[in-house]
Design a protein that fits this description.
Blueprint: E1 4-13, E2 16-26, E3 31-35, H1 42-50, E4 57-62, E5 65-66, E6 77-80, H2 92-102, H3 107-120, H4 136-148, E7 154-158, H5 166-183, E8 186-191, H6 194-200, E9 203-208, E10 211-216, H7 218-223, H8 228-233, E11 240-249, E12 252-257, E13 260-263, E14 279-283, E15 288-290, E16 298-308, E17 312-319, E18 322-329, H9 330-333, E19 341-346, E20 352-355, E21 361-362
Parallel strand pairs: 3-8, 3-9, 6-7, 7-8
Antiparallel strand pairs: 1-2, 1-4, 4-5, 9-10, 11-12, 11-14, 12-13, 14-20, 15-19, 16-17, 16-19, 17-18, 20-21
Helix pairs in contact: 2-3, 2-4
Length: about 375
Amino acid sequence: MSYLELNNLSKNFDSVKALDHFSFSVEQNEFAVLFGSSAAGKTTTLRCIAGLEKIDDGEIIFDSTNYTSAPIQGRGIAMIFQTFALYPHLTVTENLSYPLKRLGFEKSDIQSRVDKTAEMLKISHTLQRKPDTLSGGEKQRLAIGRALIQEPKLLLLDEPLANLDAKLRHDTRAELKRLQRDLNMTMVYATPDQLEALTMGDNITIIKEGKFIQKGAPNELYDKPDNSYVAKMIGSPTINFIDAKLTQNNNQNAIELPFGKINLKNSLSSTNDFLNTDLSFGIRPHDITIAIDNSNDNFEANLFLKEPLGDVTILDIAIKNNKLKMILPEEEAIKYDVGKNMKVTIDASKAYLFTSDTGVNININ
């Protein structure tokens, strides 16, 4: 059994179905990420785990104990919210010590934990200050400290970096990962930001409209998406999608695109059910490259926009009015001018085919 298990959780807010038989599991000492777009059900999931929301159906098993109907107090769970939720009239010391006072800790033990937590989070110099005198990063570390000082068995984080600027988000991501490793703590981190999900999570669970979509390590979700939704959510720039059909001639499979045909190296009998049906062809920008020979997988493209990113450049190209993105190293991209034509090749061994109606991934490689 996993350290945390949510089994078929359902939660409705009047006519809105926030969670729809959602299942989710986390191993002990794992940094688990719950990843989804706005209103996917991430916050509701965390609030149900913490006991802040009563579920309509399903069960919550934590540390081998059924906590489905257990009171908030005693769950051994702490939660950090998107807003810092600090007490503005209290000093940093008082903010840190507040949850311990509520739990009945001795004064000497409280001061010891405050000093230890402040030192760990590098906010010892702020102990006598109030939150409105702190920087955004200091406020975030204080919010983290107020959760950590309780020494919870599980820490829930609900988009905790959303209010920080880009540099602070980067620094705090690294700090959270370090803390999680150093403390051997189990964390569940909810975010709509794929960069946070990919760089922080040991495992990522994708949620959409309150439903489980796919779980896996970052590389697994990138390389083997179960469906087009996962393929679109993981990877930047986002994957290219093109209307397509799968055809077969003399046991040779080929993908028919609006601008030409791409032959597949393998004969795949498992795809026969999808022959000549409407499909979606997926190719990541990294897998469209400059043609170096006269292969049948080469196509003439018009370069209509360049997006420099420093060491690499995104090229927006059109192949017979089908707009795609590709990525080249900057030293290669400068050779091509906007408005000019170029020969590109699509790596069929890196391509995906998805059903148009359900988005399910058809294994073609």
